[in-house]
Amino acid sequence: MSPLSLVLVIASAVSLLAWVLSLLTHDHSWVDRLWSVVPVVYVWVFATSTGLSDARLTVMAVVVTLWGARLTYNFARKGGYTGTEDYRWAILRARMPRWRFELFNLFFIVLYQNALLVLITLPAWTAWEHRATPFGPPDVVAAALFVALLAGETVADEQQWRFQLAKKTRDAAGPRFVQTGLWRYSRHPNFFFEQAQWWVFFLFGAIAAGSPLQWTVLGAALLTLLFVGSTAFTESITRGRYPEYAAYQATTSAVVPWPPRRRDVAAAAGPGRG
Question: Is the pTM here over 0.70, yes or no?
Answer without folding.
Answer: yes
